[in-house]
Amino acid sequence: QYFQILCIAGLTSALQSINLQLILAVGKSKEMFLFTILKRVIGLLAIFIGLVYYDIYGLLSGVVFNYWFSYIVNISLVSKHIEYQWIQQLKDVFSIGIVSLIIATITYIVASTFDFNIYVDGIVKLFIYIILYIGWSVLFKPKAYMFFYNLLVNKTINENL
What we know:
This protein has about 160 residues and is an all-alpha fold. Helix content is about 90%, strand content about 0%.
């Protein structure tokens, strides 16, 4: 159950990294440094308060808050310095998130019909998810899939020349 709570925090991890790199790429490292200090102080405060008042679940809730708060600060900075507004970024991520959630739900339902040990269960769920996600991508050809597909095809063609 702890891991499931931390997965909510992890949803923002890759997105934060991308936003941080964008901010640094436009030369705003000093501003990023100052906001990082602010994010860390508020995040540590949330984690500490959560732990003191609500035990382990409070600590985990503080971690989740910290990740999401940091993500919101980062997309605000990107919106300020790049013509990629935070609402557009959320729209771009939302569609992929919904599809992933639907596929994860189907994976959970299908895999729960079997009675495997924890390790086999994880592997089965992983393979079901991957197969469903690739199948959806091939069928509907979302932008991200087409981008990486074309990148892979072009790289393979260039390597064979």
